[in-house]
Amino acid sequence: MSLLSVRSLTVHIPRGPLVTRAVENLSFDINRGEVFGLVGESGCGKSMTALAVMGLLPTAARIVKGEIVFENKNLVGQPDSVLRTIRGNRVAMIFQEPMTSLNPVFTVGFQIAELLMTHKGLSKRAGMDMAVDLLGKVKVPSPELRVHQYPHQMSGGMRQRVMIAMALACEPAFIIADEPTTALDVTIQAQILELLEELRESTGTSMLFITHDLGLVSEISDRLTVMYAGAAMEQSEASRVFSRPGHPYTRGLLDSLPVERGRRLRPIPGTVPTAENFPPGCRFSPRCAFRIEACDKAEPELRELQAGHWIRCIRAEEIARA
After folding, report:
1. What is the CB neighbour count within 10 angstroms for residue 149?
2. How many CA atoms lie within 13 A of 91 on its CB side?
3. How far apart are CA 69 and CA 76, in angstroms?
4. Confidence class for position 99, pLDDT limits 50, 70, 90
């Protein structure tokens, strides 16, 4: 049985007479010990999905349809008092910018200890001792000294390690990593990715890994969903998506990667449509090289073409043979 099941998740944000359709009919399952990737361009609904799972949607946002079932409990509609017992305890989140997530007026050690005091009932001294252990676990050098530092006294890579330590503090069953390496240089990115993989293997924690970087998601994910304009375009095992992409959008993303010296990049033409005004039919059709007249008439369903490989495209069979 899946640890987390998201079913037909639909998140809308009213904006006067318009409605921002941030996420529409999104479904996926994450098994125990699995890393599931959510990949797509900025604004496609990845982070909104994560916030919905955490129960931290912006004030105006509403889940208008769907279920988020974690450990056999539907989190949609639960009071905040219930969600607070789950957040930081059974479910934790690593945000993409630690400087906006860490409190600048408290030491990093106290912020880790506070989680343990709140959820595990530890004393402050025991919490600080555990904070030292956790910082050592995520490979922060001299953790017994670092616990007394403030966020601004640490580098970006060290702050992200602190965020990972905080996520691990209560031994959660599930971690959401939302663009955890975005603000870091490539060397530190590789270190953080290696650390997350080591922690997954040692703790068995499941993870939702959110990114716009196909290179990163290919390294860490077991399965993934490719999102575009709030909807899932393709879903399968990561290895299959990268070796045999079935949706034109996935192909476009892969073609735009710099894979060899001397080959010109092939960017996807056009821009992502606004979430208040999607085109008729397939929302990717204005940018699609495989577009035909039928693409503009009705939005295609997400179909299972092969076992475990789902694609939202009426020409998926033809594209697979191309």
Report:
1. 16
2. 23
3. 8
4. confident
d(CA 69, CA 142) in angstroms, rounded, equals 40
Residue 98 has pLDDT above 70, yes or no: yes
The string of DSSP codes covering 94-106 is E-S-HHHHS-TTS
* pLDDT value of position 213: 84
Contact of 118 with 201, CB cutoff 8 Å: no
Q: What is the rounded distance in angstroms from the CA atom of residue 138 to the CA atom of residue 240?
A: 31
Q: Give yes or no for residue 1 having a pLDDT over 70.
A: no
Q: How far is CA 207 from CA 177, 285, 317, in A?
A: 7, 32, 31
Q: Tokens representing 2?
A: 């899946």
- Report which of 78, 100, 109 is spatially closest to residue 91, judged by C-alpha positions: 78
Chain centroid to Cα 168, Å, comes to 17
How far separated are the first and last CA of the chain, in Å rounded? 36
Q: How far apart are CA 25 and CA 158, in angstroms?
A: 37
pLDDT in tens, 13-64: 998 889 999 999 999 999 999 999 999 988 899 999 999 999 999 999 999 9
Sheet holding 206-211, edge to edge: 91-94, 174-178, 206-211, 35-39, 223-228, 231-237, 309-311, 303-306
Structure tokens at 70: 């974690």
CA distance 259 to 163: 32
**pLDDT for 154:** 93
- Which of 63, 40, 43, 41 shows the shortest CA–CA distance to 53? 63
